[in-house]
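Help! Submission page says 'invalid entity' but I think these are all valid:
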Amino acid sequence: SQQGEEDPQALSIQEGENATMNCSYKTSINNLQWYRQNSGRGLVHLILIRSNEREKHSGRLRVTLDTSKKSSSLLITASRAADTASYFCAQFYSTLTFGKGTMLLVSP
Amino acid sequence: EAQVTQNPRYLITVTGKKLTVTCSQNMNHEYMSWYRQDPGLGLRQIYYSMNVEVTDKGDVPEGYKVSRKEKRNFPLILESPSPNQTSLYFCASGRLNTEAFFGQGTRLTVV
């Protein structure tokens, strides 16, 4: 079943602004992952954060994890038009399950 | 190059005509999975496999079959497709607790 829920469902910003997406999940996790999907294409792995980590960075991406609140956030700094995509959080423990995603639109 | 390959990429078929969508990975992953993606519903899991000869139902298995006779292949079979199976399908593979890799997708239309 879909264990993660992203918020907001859609987000529209201007180039150069920061974008923040949130994910809430229901069960205990070993790690939480974020993926990106460009329109109609396969998902691409962005970043994995383990349950004993609180924050992780990769380029312009920053992910935080709060296991007490069962939530994670993905921050994209200085966004670009090329960041326009859907973003999903996922758990890959006994199986790989996704939320419904956040659609991000970055306008030039 | 590490990859997950799905075929075909696009398929239009008629109701009731059996079809198979193939999925192959070259990374020796134990785990493979099929998803369908429909507007507003996100990715819903159809079936998954933890290893050869081991398959389990996901959230929406009705109308689908799978097999895992070899580690690299995980075909999705629609014995009697219906219009409500029109969707975008993705295959994925990986090792538990690490990143997963996705195929490019198969856009299926059943008329």
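Support: the input was valid. A stray whitespace character was the problem, and the output above is from the cleaned input. Chain B has a mean pLDDT of 96.
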